[in-house]
Amino acid sequence: MSVILKGADVVKEMNEAMMAELALRTADGLAVPKLAIVRVGERPDDLAYERGAVKRFANIGLRTELYAFAAEISQEDFLAAFRQINADPDVHGILVFRPLAPQIDDRLVIEAIDPAKDVDGISPVNMAKIFAGDDSGFAPCTAAAVVAILDHAGISLKGKRVAVVGRSLVVGKPLSMLLLARDATVTLCHSKTLDLPAVCREADILVACVGKAKMLGVEYVRPGAVVIDVGINVDEEGNLWGDVDFTAVEGIAGAVTPVPGGVGTVTTSILARQLMKAAAKGR
Amino acid sequence: MSVILKGADVVKEMNEAMMAELALRTADGLAVPKLAIVRVGERPDDLAYERGAVKRFANIGLRTELYAFAAEISQEDFLAAFRQINADPDVHGILVFRPLAPQIDDRLVIEAIDPAKDVDGISPVNMAKIFAGDDSGFAPCTAAAVVAILDHAGISLKGKRVAVVGRSLVVGKPLSMLLLARDATVTLCHSKTLDLPAVCREADILVACVGKAKMLGVEYVRPGAVVIDVGINVDEEGNLWGDVDFTAVEGIAGAVTPVPGGVGTVTTSILARQLMKAAAKGR
Description:
The structure is a homodimer. Chain A is 41% helix and 16% strand. By secondary structure, chain A is an alpha/beta fold. Chain A folds into 2 domains: 29-125, Leucine Dehydrogenase, chain A, domain 1 (Rossmann fold), CATH 3.40.50.10860; 141-264, CATH 3.40.50.720. In chain A, strand 5, helix 7 and strand 6 form a beta-alpha-beta unit. Chain A is globular, with a radius of gyration of 19 Å. Chain A starts with a strand and ends with a helix. Chain A binds chain B through residues 124-125, 127-133, 158-159, 161, 167, 169, 173, 176-177, 180, 183, 185-190, 192-194, 199, 202, and chain B through 124-125, 127-133, 158-159, 161, 167, 169, 173, 176-177, 180, 183, 185-190, 192-194, 199, 202.
């Protein structure tokens, strides 16, 4: 049987470390780090993620403040409000739910956000740092969550063959750079890759971030390989499925993350850790 | 025998296209694009590249202006001068020889350069665009030269396995992103890659950018593969060698670039093309 890499175990370790750090910080008389959550309208997905983040941040002892705007707010009004949040010295990090709204150009916000508060890693400055292998910035949380799970499981990346399936700017590309910085040999695969199963079978570690339910079955997995499933796909009945056919792969893989309960579970802890890092830099 | 992919053929085609475009531009009464070449001190390598660029730009009909500073100029004085060049509306693009000098922090210049004039692709904004697959910015010239050679030879990248050996921020990483944007399946290899010859033999196209003379021999090349050699290594006698053992690989590879006369020959034409693009954007 495969080892099941549960997100909860990673979260527990990360959160304990953050609570200890937070205690030291408050003992020094420093402010409790605050995350500004910026939302336009009321998309159910955003609300669900928000509820989770607010609760988990409270459990750690971190502050969140919600800035919710009406779905029909003008771009001008939104940007003016955003600049105030951005400049507020009591805000240490900012999470923006995107896409914002049809009338608002997301790029203006991506370019406006203070890179030092951009704990979700959306600004070009943080992108460029991830690309450069400079760890002074902030990575997109899901990409960093994958690395945290591998680290927690004690899986070394140095010299390993890793196949990353999916080349999005939110997961596949930044994750490839984080893995490369750990000396993995990374192959970036995508919808145009020929004989994808064979390419994936070359990998010691296979990461699926394509967004297609149960797409990767046994033929993609070298026996004993580590399989990390970033996919969160919802079917008509509201069930969650990963990009990996978990039932088929379990028993073949050396280790595999479940969905739900795997990578997705860890992302808010990464967000919290990046907020702590932003606050520690004196903001 | 392998097809020899000569840089001169690519340069000829690119330069003819640029001369035609330049004729249209001047007929419209627009200024001839000007490149500012910024140099501190007199390193022989910089001087050699500068002489080549000045001559080739003149042949195309483009302007260059040299801004040479004494090796011992203070950081403050240099930055003040640089800001003037950066703001000059008659300067359409800027090439900065780096490292500048021990007393000058290169990062300050990288951050100061106007991304719209950064025709050598050093600013974080242009990095982030390359990473994002957004072609509105400027790529590092050597990385773009590799793609230009493949394009000129009519070698399609879609679905091809490409191994890039070397992960520098100047060549390996941006090149991987340019190839990925063309739908290649890219494996980024480096000094920590295990069994590098076997990984390279998986590739339809092998790109060497490691900086070690004749490191890649026949055991790295699948018969018929395309081999692009970015290396320029100088031995004690002043001879130039690529990263590829050309003599050994010629006859095994389907096509191969020579050194000298391959990728390096194309970089100044890329610089010129990026200057034309910067000028066309109305600067």
